[in-house]
Amino acid sequence: GGNQMWGGRFAEGPSAIMREINASIPFDKALWRQDIRASKAHVAMLGAMHIVSDEDAVTIERGLDQVAAEYEVNGVPEDWALEDIHMTTESRLAELIGPAAGRLHTARSRNDQVATDFRLWVRDAMDEAQAGLEALQRALVTRAGEHADSIMPGFTHLQTAQPVTLGHHLMAYYEMIARDRSRFADARKRLNRSPLGAAALAGTGFPIDREMTAQALGFDGPTANSLDSVSDRDFALDYLMAASQCALHLSRLAEEFIIWASQPFGFVALPDSLSTGSSIMPQKKNPDAAELVRGHSGRITGCLVSLMMTMKGLPLAYSKDMQDDKPPVFEAASLLALSIAAMTGMVAETRFRTDRMRAAAELGFATATDLADWLVRQADIPFREAHHITGAAVKLAEQRGVPLDQLPLEDLKAIDSRIDARVFSALSVEASVAARKSHGGTAPDQVRKQVALAREALGLE
Ligand code: ARG
């Protein structure tokens, strides 16, 4: 007795603790749409191959539609005795259509069934990430186009380095997101083979048509090895790796917004809609959404590590450890979707305080490299020597408390006699960014060129 699905050889049913530790229905009910879809593809194939009668195939397909309609309205019932979504659905099907329901599981095992369902689910999650990231890229190129000329300080070590444009800075994230998208696309290609028909581990003696089910489910074809098909979860790990890398990019962008929103910076006014207040300090507007994106990136990477640790050391083929594959993937997917949406809103709606950015770019002697470059070009001084001369000029400007371009010419000449009045045209922040027109550089013309290419790639032109 005991379990109606597999209890034939058992004298006793499972203990309460066995039922509880075994039950995956509390989380794998999220697979119900994929499970119904895969079952319908399977039974249509069983009918076409005359493994079940046409009549039974049709009865089962209609029954599955009815189960789906019930789930849609009432949700999926959670009965631990039925273990998982696969047995929950089959059990309800049997209640609805009677003994014919028992023919659905012909030439199939829960092992290839869950591998199929989960691939379909992860494939959808990849597509969802693509759509979300495309929206984020659109927001980035739109704001970058608005700010191709807006000058801000560029940093290394978070110390003022050289002036850049805000458009250039935003386009840096466009590039990162483009690579994230290519990682999801690449992972999707590898995922897109159907494990259905691998059965428990060895394949099946029934004359199934794996091409047919693969095609019905939108796969590029069937997998080649039945043991591999039910044993590996590298498609889910590929997804989690792409998600982790993407979350890491989002976290860095979030971190920049947090810094920029801080009063001593004051580079941005975050949208009210993505900020919160303080219960005690009335003046506060906190960047909580950005902080949570930064926090979520850690959790997403935790999900990746979780599944890696589940899979390491498992012998072929299926082991029940693998049931633990789903919670980290589900968690990562929902955290990632939220993170992408939050950063898209932040990029689209933040007010950039370009006056504050421009003023900050004047601080910290950001055009010192331009002075050194000028000495190289106009006076043919080797760069290392020019670097040294410029260092002396920075030291003097620091003592006087003025920017480089406000040092009197005679003082500059006293440092090196080869300096003349033309140098001042090189020392403004505008001249500095305009000069950097190397491919991929921060010159406004270069930024506009990159924005135009990106808009074309996104189909915005
Ligand atoms: N709920 C199971 C899982 O998610 C389905 C596969 C069960 N297979 C088995 N041989 N017990 O992994």
Automatic annotation (TrEMBL):
GO biological process: L-arginine biosynthetic process via ornithine
MF annotations from Gene Ontology: argininosuccinate lyase activity
HAMAP family, alphabetized: Arg_succ_lyase
Presence of keyword Lyase: yes
Principal place of residence: cytoplasm
Organism: Novosphingobium chloroacetimidivorans
EC number(s) per entry: 4.3.2.1
NCBIfam families the record matches: argH (TIGR00838)
Any one of the GO CC terms: cytosol
Catalyzed reactions: 2-(N(omega)-L-arginino)succinate = fumarate + L-arginine
Taxon lineage: Bacteria, Pseudomonadati, Pseudomonadota, Alphaproteobacteria, Sphingomonadales
Protein name from the UniProt record: Argininosuccinate lyase
Similarity comment text for this entry: Belongs to the lyase 1 family. Argininosuccinate lyase subfamily.
